[in-house]
Design goal:
Blueprint (H helix, E strand, L loop, with lengths): L1 H19 L2 E8 L10 E4 L5 E3 L5 E6 L5 E5 L6 E4 L5 E5 L10 E4 L2 E4 L7 E5 L22 E4 L10 E4 L12 E4 L2 E2 L12 E7 L2 H4 L10 E6 L7 E14 L9 H18 L9 H9 L14 E3 L2 E3 L2 H4 L34 H5 L3 E13 L3 E13 L6 E14 L4 E15 L9 H7 L44 H7 L1 E20 L2 E20 L11 E24 L3 E26 L10 E27 L3 E12 L8 E12 L12 E15 L10 E4 L9 E5 L8 E14 L4 E20 L13 E24 L3 E18 L6 E4 L2 E4 L6 E5 L1 E4 L6 E4 L9 E5 L5 E5 L7 E7 L4 E11 L2 E11 L2 E3 L1 H6 L34 H4 L7 E3 L2 E12 L12 E15 L21 E11 L1
Parallel strand pairs: 1-7, 13-16
Antiparallel strand pairs: 1-4, 2-3, 2-5, 5-6, 8-9, 10-15, 11-12, 13-14, 15-16, 17-20, 17-52, 18-19, 20-21, 21-22, 22-23, 23-24, 24-25, 25-26, 26-27, 27-28, 28-29, 29-30, 30-31, 31-34, 32-33, 34-35, 35-36, 36-37, 37-46, 38-39, 40-45, 41-42, 42-44, 43-44, 46-47, 47-50, 48-49, 50-51, 51-52
Length: about 1100
């Protein structure tokens, strides 16, 4: 026994001695500029023993004596190996490789090596976000990759871009992609997420990558993954940013006061001459006298003050424009009878006529953030806190956001790992109103430049003061004024005196537990909750606007909750060193609820008290509740043979409470194939080919973006009489309704050539959408009405999107001190309706018409023929029935005749061979690095497509209603013989001359300097005093300039190709510094 103990002790001592002989290998990993690469992975080849580099690129790793090779990799760089010799310290330089096939990308319910994927995936990394002054992370997707089309519907702080992936997935439902945050469907706003917390944004574009989301994945999937600490690192970062903003799109050029008054005079005079059914003069001269106000006037009676002509009563232009005279000449001396402005006229208050200047401001942006991360073999922690205060360029458009996040994970035992990711934020919005008359962008854009912001004494021109000595705003209906443009309203006063505030509190929690049964078999359960509470408070003042004369106050609160619980079993094993099998089995429950209550009271008692008790009368009180649930069972198989031949397949069976019980379940699936051609022996001598992979996928996905109860009829309660409660029918149920279905085909080629100096991807896609939901009018026996007001939603239509996309990156220069990368991406696609409801085979919604063989955005409108050179009337191609009362027969110069009409009601409407869909869209990006400097810029573009410029159309109509003119009106028809495409001014023919037609269709081609950034890594000699490991200063600009066919036109405001009076994109100039310890 004693000998045995001595033997065991000897073995123990020998083992201890052998362990003590482990070596420590240290070193530094750098990029081609000699800068340390943080978070690079350093592992012993063939094992899991490894570490990551710190913020300066240094590492230290204990290895066994037998270790011969270390593998070094980092996202965005080519992996390399270190051969271990007798030395213990090594330095290794990694070359850039943004198309690294070994890069791990986020996919549905996990991650996957890019080279092993058969799908189409685009990914934006944290480095692409770090310099950009964006309050909403989705703005990072603008121009990020082919197949991702974006718009900028609003420039308000925190606003989201519009996003579609590979065309339109639906006719009546949303075509927006599904959003997933940290592996779970996300229902909150993206202005709630701090972009600095994001590690990657991944876009899944084909069936192979989206089918696992079943009934929700048809329109693509955008996956946001937040940061976590990297093993072996510890870092504390402080970041400060400050910036300013202003409109990125210039205003439409409009006439000034000196030009406007004669133009309004001319429109009034011409209306007197060419008007119909009036006791009007027949000569321009006599009409000119009336317009200038030079004829005798009625002294009494109802026509007192008006001019007498042929026994009739006529106003002059001064009266027509509401008795506003901003000039220093008499009211009847402003415009001479020949239509010229009085040469002695000068403005009395020129600085008070520009509403746009006073409706906007210079926006500001300040952001402060702190991040801490630390990780060991057993535990990792990432935490952050940030504060953002942003004021937009529009009045009363502000955002303030506090956000915090903790992401902690622990390996409790060798076989069990657990963690949580908890984020909380409070966001306050001060909303600029963009609805109705109070919309400052509408009001200030169209108001004529003779109307002042403040009230002026008609006699002296001096500003009128209120009882407190402050200037009074001019509402257009005081001191004898009668402004025809929105009289009784004042957008600036209403914005300053009204309230429209939101306070949004969001909690997002993710938790997981993972059991490792074997290195190749794990079971994971995830539970998550997203809870959003929103409080809205709105007040309209009693002085001017919607609250006049009593004042009104509303308050509402809503709560949106979503819970997800899933279980995942993962099998991943390599057999016989060449066969790799990855299998996922899963189950998921999703629960969504929204509740809300709102009330409105009128009759304000005291100023500045915003509580219901301060308003005397209840106007309305309502509440709402809505809920849906879904459940899914799913599986995925990925197989590859030696990384050369790839097969993937997925299947999901989904059930959704939105649909009838017998139609509630459906199957969604995909198959994918891949071939890494570069691994074939026949290419072994083609050293110039680094990567070459052909892939294809096909599948079935679904779109369930309907309301929560579409198959049930809706009723409205509260329709009571004196003694009995009452209800009315609001909508008819659709008992056969189910989800829309997509069958996408994707074929792609990924390549890397010449040591990855040229790499990219080429792709073709074909998406067939079927079961599209249309509203079908019902006959009387089914609950319909003679007017067709009740319809039933049915799965009837079909639509196809098909196209090609490409992204190519070149590295013209790659050296130790200087690098240059250039990337171009482009997408072309077409859209076609292939099936419509039999009851409504064509649907017209000006300026579009939808029917089989056309896209959903083909323009269908009047064909503007030109301007009659003799009369200045607008001409349109007429209906086939010739009517001499309102049509002319004009030689069309090609051997035939067109029926041409001056009556827009008699004009023929037809397709004009123009669509809002672009021929090509994409981006062009460059990134330069020189020693410690980095410079990058992104230009986005769209070539082709058309925009119906409704704003321009409004600025080209008559101004006698107090609206201004675009400067193009100066090219109008004025006398017989004039050749122009702009009709005469005529206040009686505004509807005729300004009718919707292809006259207002404008090229949608644009180029935008989307982002420019310059960064500099401070030298270490400057950081030693504060013991910082690194520091970076940067400046950047967002939406710096738009180049469009027409100045002021927002081409990129929506997908339908129509301009509007919206809050245009903001140009942001930003500077910041980040310091790491």
């Amino acid at each position: 026994m004693r000998k045995l103990l001595m033997l065991m002790l000897g073995v123990l001592c020998l083992t201890t001695q052998l362990l003590a002989q482990n070596r420590t290998i240290s070193g530094r990993i750098t990029n081609e500029q000699g800068e340390g690469i943080a978070n690079a992975s350093v592992t012993v080849k063939g094992t899991t023993n490894g570490t990551v580099t710190n913020a300066t690129g240094n590492f230290s790793l204990s290895v066994a004596p037998s270790t011969r090779t270390l593998v070094v990799s980092s996202v965005g760089f080519q992996a390399r190996e270190i051969t271990i010799g007798s030395q213990n310290t090594y330095t290794l330089t990694l070359s850039g490789d943004a198309q690294n096939m070994n890069e791990v990308v986020v996919v549905a319910y996990g991650t996957q090596r890019r080279g092993a994927s058969t799908g189409s995936i685009a990914q934006v990394n944290a480095k692409d976000l770090e310099n950009r002054p964006i309050s909403n992370a989705l703005n990072a997707l603008v121009g990020a990759a082919p197949g991702i089309q974006t718009t900028t519907p609003s420039g308000a702080p925190g606003s989201s871009p519009g996003i579609i992936v590979r065309g339109f997935g639906s006719f009546s439902l949303s075509s927006a992609p599904l959003y997933v945050v940290d592996g779970v469907i996300y229902d909150g706003g993206f202005s709630n997420i701090n972009p600095d917390d994001i590690a990657t944004i991944t876009v899944l574009k084909d069936a192979s990558t989206t089918a696992l989301y079943g009934s929700k994945g048809a329109n693509g999937v955008v996956m946001i993954t937040t940061k976590k600490a990297r093993k072996g690192s510890q870092n504390l970062q402080f970041k400060v940013q400050t910036g300013i903003s202003n409109p990125a799109i210039p205003q439409y050029p409009t006439v000034d006061a000196y030009q406007f008054y004669p133009l309004a005079w001319e429109a009034y005079r011409n209306g007197l001459v060419y008007g119909t059914g009036l006791t009007s003069p027949t000569t321009l001269d006599s009409a000119g006298l009336i317009a200038s106000g030079l004829l005798p006037r009625w002294a009494s009676g109802g026509n007192a003050g008006n001019q007498i002509f042929r026994g009739g009563s006529f106003q002059d232009i001064y009266q027509i424009l509401g008795k506003y005279n901003p000039f220093n000449v008499g009211n009847t001396d402003i415009v001479l009878p020949n239509g010229q402005l009085n040469p002695n006229a000068s403005l009395r208050y020129a600085d008070d006529l520009n509403w746009l200047d006073q409706s906007t401001r210079r926006g500001t942006r300040n952001e402060y953030g702190i991040q801490f991360s630390s990780a060991t073999d057993k535990f990792d922690l990432f935490s952050s806190f940030s504060y953002l205060k942003e004021g937009g360029w529009g009045l009363r458009s502000d955002l303030s956001r506090f956000s915090a996040r903790v992401n902690a994970n622990a390996r409790v035992t060798d076989w069990f790992r657990s963690g949580f990711n908890l984020a909380a934020n409070r966001t306050k919005f001060n909303n600029a109103s963009t609805d109705g008359i109070v919309n400052a962008f509408y009001f200030s854009r169209y108001i004529a430049p003779i109307y002042p912001v403040y009230l002026h004494d008609p006699a002296t021109g001096a500003i009128v003061l209120d009882a407190t000595g402050k200037p009074r705003y001019d509402y257009g209906n005081e001191n004898g004024y009668g402004r025809p443009y929105n009289s009784g309203r004042h957008t600036i006063a209403e914005h300053l005196w009204n309230l429209d505030n939101d306070v949004r509190d969001v909690i997002s929690a993710r938790g997981f537990g993972e059991i490792t049964f074997a290195p190749w078999l794990t079971f994971t359960t995830n539970i998550s909750a997203d809870i959003t509470n929103n409080e809205n408070e709105a007040y309209q003042n009693p002085i001017v606007g919607d609250g006049y004369p009593a004042g009104r106050y509303s308050r509402g609160s809503s709560r949106v909750t979503s819970y997800t619980f899933n279980q995942l079993l993962n099998f991943n094993k390599r057999f016989a060193s060449a066969h790799n099998v990855d299998v996922l089995l899963g189950h998921e429950n999703y629960d969504y609820k929204t509740t809300g209550i709102s009330g409105l009271r009128i009759g304000q008692a005291f100023e500045n008290v915003y509580q219901f008790s301060n308003f005397g009368t209840i106007n309305s009180l309502s509440s709402a509740f809505s809920a849906s649930r879904s459940e899914g069972f799913f599986s995925r198989l990925n197989y590859d043979y030696n990384g050369k031949y790839l097969v993937s397949a997925s299947l999901r069976r989904d059930g959704n409470s939105k649909f009838p019980t017998d139609l509630r379940w459906a199957n969604f699936w995909s198959v994918g194939l891949g071939w890494s051609i570069d691994k074939e022996d026949f290419l072994s001598t083609a050293s110039w080919i680094d990567q070459l992979k052909l892939r294809a996928s096909y599948g079935v996905t679904g779109n369930s973006n309907t309301g929560n109860y579409p198959y049930q009829s809706g009723f409205d309660i509260g329709w009571d009489d004196d003694t009995r409660p009452g209800i009315i029918l609001l909508s008819l149920g659709s008992p056969q309704l189910t989800w829309e279905t997509q069958k996408p085909l994707d074929i792609g080629l990924d390549f890397g050539l010449f040591k990855n100096r040229l790499y990219g991807t080429l792709g073709y896609f074909y998406k067939n959408s079927s079961g599209l939901i249309f509203s079908v009018p019902q006959p009387l026996q089914n609950g319909g009405t003679p007017s067709g007001s009740f319809s039933v939603s049915q799965n009837i239509g079909e639509m196809v999107n098909k196209g090609v996309e490409a992204q190519i990156t070149g590295v013209p220069v790659r050296s130790r001190n200087f690098n240059w990368n250039v990337t171009l991406n482009a997408t072309h696609y077409t859209n076609e309706l292939t099936k419509m409801p039999e009851a409504t085979p064509a649907l017209t919604s000006s300026p579009f018409k939808r029917e089989v063989g056309k896209s959903i955005y083909d323009f269908y409108t009047r064909d503007f023929y030109g301007v009659d050179p003799q009369t200045g009337s607008a001409l349109y191609k007429g209906v086939l029935t010739y009517n001499t009362a309102n049509s002319l027969l004009i030689d069309n110069k090609v051997g035939g005749f067109d029926t041409v009409t001056i009556d827009h009601n008699n004009a023929r409407q037809d397709y004009v061979n123009k669509t809002s869909l672009p021929d090509v869209y994409g981006s062009f990006a460059n990134r330069f690095s020189y020693k410690k400097f980095e410079l990058g810029f992104v230009i986005t573009y769209q070539i082709g497509g058309y925009v119906y410029d409704g704003v321009y159309a409004g600025l080209m109509s008559t101004a006698t209603n107090g609206g201004t003119y675009h400067t193009d009106i100066l090219k109008r028809w004025q006398k017989p013989g004039d050749i122009t495409d702009i009709p005469r001014l005529d206040n009686t023919r505004s509807a005729q001359f300004g009718a919707t037609s292809d006259r207002f269709l404008t090229s949608g081609t644009y180029f935008s300097i989307n982002n420019v950034s310059l960064a500099y890594q401070l030298p270490k000699s400057l950081l030693s005093a504060i013991n910082a490991t690194s520091a970076r200063v940067f400046v950047s600009g967002e939406n710096l300039h738009f180049f469009t066919k027409r100045k002021g036109m927002n081409v990129n405001g929506n997908f339908s190709g129509q301009t509007s009076d919206s809050y245009d994109a903001a140009r942001v100039i930003n500077a910041g510094i980040s310091v790491n310890f």
